[in-house]
Design goal:
By secondary structure, the chain is an alpha/beta fold. Helices cover 48% and strands 19% of the residues. The chain has two domains: 142 residues, Response regulator (Rossmann fold, 3-Layer(aba) Sandwich), CATH 3.40.50; 158 residues, Reverse transcriptase/Diguanylate cyclase domain (Alpha-Beta Plaits). It is built from eleven helices and ten strands. The N and C termini lie far apart (66 Å). Bound molecules: magnesium ion (MG).
Length: 318
């Protein structure tokens, strides 16, 4: 049985792709157990027997798909679906409604609320598995496209678009908490000369190595390094006071220095160096938007260049 199903639906249930995570929501345990039998071999199965628990589980587990009973005591399936779709964290998770019988009005309402598909009781294992597999495959394609859209193709770190999103999120969070937010703008010194002397393939390799060196200098999962443009990088450091930002800047300087990439045309050093502009602020204290934050860091970067490059300049705006 398993073999034939895997031949029918190869994508989502392939042994070499990560096991799909399914959340089963039904107020009748017997229904959950029936569905569990269908999926337990190929998927990691999670369960909830009421709407509140389903919402909690969805937000913490971020499953690949949710199978949701419509008629439940307390919060019904429609309401659960509506809440899932209005939370940015869970809005991308496909929801398949489980209904006792076919009812066109019910299905129209479900699709209007953002349902991906319907499955009718009594559960037919082959149909159920096919529908779930389709949704998982679609979700994985969407996730992949989403991640490609946010990643710089050359260096593999975040791109400008992800930087723009991240700095807004961290700005708002720091504004709510009145906490420090630091930003480091980084520029590779005399990179045009490097490209002219060594050629573009070498230039690309240089950027990849510098990006990696910067990334490994950041320790916390919520610190972000992005390729801001050309040979410019940016680090967003939430909850980071001026001394912390200065420490990270020196770590970055050390690790780029450690690469010892020859740069015959630099004039500053025999190796590739970077200049940095560092700013720490508490949103709303001196500046009140991210554009001004970026401009302040750019000004410090310009100052570092003016002072002789291969260094960092700092400012505290709070
Ligand atoms: Mg029910």
């Amino acid at each position: 049985m398993k073999t034939s199903l895997n031949i029918l639906f190869p994508d989502a249930f392939r042994a070499d792709s990560p096991r799909p995570r399914i959340l089963l929501v039904d107020d009748q345990m017997i229904n959950i157990l029936t569905l569990n039998e269908v999926f337990k071999e190929d998927c990691d199965v999670f369960m909830a027997t009421n709407g509140e628990h389903a919402l909690e589980q969805a937000a913490s587990l971020l499953p690949d798909v949710i199978l949701l009973d419509i008629v439940m005591d307390g919060m019904d399936g429609y309401t659960v679906c509506e809440k899932l779709k209005s939370n940015p964290l869970t809005s991308g998770i496909p929801v398949i409604f489980i209904t006792a019988h076919f009812d066109e009005v019910d299905e129209v309402r479900g699709f209007e609320l953002g349902a991906a598909d319907f499955i009718h009781k009594p559960i037919n294992a082959v149909i159920t598995k096919a529908r779930v597999s389709n949704q998982i495959a679609l979700k994985r394609q969407t996730d992949l496209l989403h991640s490609i859209a946010l990643i710089d193709g050359l260096t593999g770190i975040a791109n400008r678009r992800q930087f723009n999103q991240a700095i807004q999120v961290h700005w708002q969070q720091a504004n709510r908490e009145k906490s420090d937010l630091s930003l480091i703008m980084i520029d590779v010194d005399y990179f045009k000369r490097y490209n002219d002397h060594y050629g573009h393939p070498e230039g690309d390799e240089c950027l990849r190595r510098v990006a990696h060196a910067i990334k490994t200098s950041l320790q916390r999962p919520y610190d972000l390094v992005a390729r801001y443009g050309g040979e410019e990088f940016a680090c967003v450091l939430p909850k980071t006071a001026p001394d912390g930002a200065a420490f990270i800047a020196s770590q970055i300087q050390t690790s780029v220095h450690g690469l010892a990439i020859p740069h015959a045309e630099s004039g500053v050093s025999p190796h590739v160096t970077i200049s940095m502009g560092v700013v720490t602020t508490i949103p709303g204290s001196v500046i009140d938007n991210t554009a001004d934050l970026i401009e302040a860091a750019d000004k410090q970067l310009y100052q570092a260049k003016k002072d002789g490059r291969a260094r960092a300049c700092f400012i505290e705006l709070k």
